[in-house]
């Protein structure tokens, strides 16, 4: 459910960045089922948000679970700077992928990846999944939320929007969208030693084919 109080919280958190970017973040809040993604977190622990963008997920996470320790990482320096302006909390840090050496291996309870893999060529997914696995504790939880290729009418809406975002407006850095079938995600997660415990459609009430996977790292 979308809440006015969340929109007010977002506008306040991002008060130091441009109005246009703030509006973009509010729209991002409206089009993605954040409550379902956040329901996989716990009251405490360490969370790594890979491909954090403007850091919306982590700001929403800390609004609900203030004791979490959260780190967002992204390769787009402009987004990392904007995300950093959204917080003065000690338990929320945003870093660029160049600074990944600051993270301690096997120290995170949760790794979350939201709408990142689709923007990366599929032959590079292994790089990302094995990298995040390095930072997860044994038995740590991975949550991947992406868009999939069914239902087809939602897929076409999603594909068109992503082409505009990546190629025309250039507000997402990446290649052509890779909107893959559910089975492809399951195989990639298994190939990177994650046991998928739950996966389901989470697109009810949205125009986009949102889908979530939750798994555990096995050694
Ligand atoms: C569509 S945005 C999603 C941002 C955020 N997760 C959200 O849901 O609002 C995709 C993000 O992934 C980041 N990204 C893509 N490939 C990446 C990589 N190899 N390493 C780090 N960040 C990456 C992009 O810079 C972008 O911020």
- DSSP strand (E) fraction? 15-25%
Q: What is the architecture at the second tier of CATH?
A: 3-Layer(aba) Sandwich
Net shape: globular
pLDDT averaged over residues: 95
Helical amount: 25-40%
Calculate Rg over CA atoms.
16 Å
Major sheet: size, sense and barrel closure? 7 strands, mixed
Structural key phrases:
7 strands; 8 helices; single chain; seven-stranded mixed sheet; 219 residues; Rossmann fold; globular; alpha/beta; binds S-adenosylmethionine
Describe the structure.
This protein is an alpha/beta fold and 219 residues long. The chain has one domain: Vaccinia Virus protein VP39 (Rossmann fold, 3-Layer(aba) Sandwich), CATH 3.40.50.150. 38% of the residues lie in helices and 23% in strands. The protein has a seven-stranded mixed β-sheet with strand order 3-2-1-4-5-7-6, sandwiched between helices. The protein is globular, with a radius of gyration of 16 Å. The chain starts with a helix and ends with a strand. The model has no long low-confidence stretch (mean pLDDT 95). Bound molecules: S-adenosylmethionine.
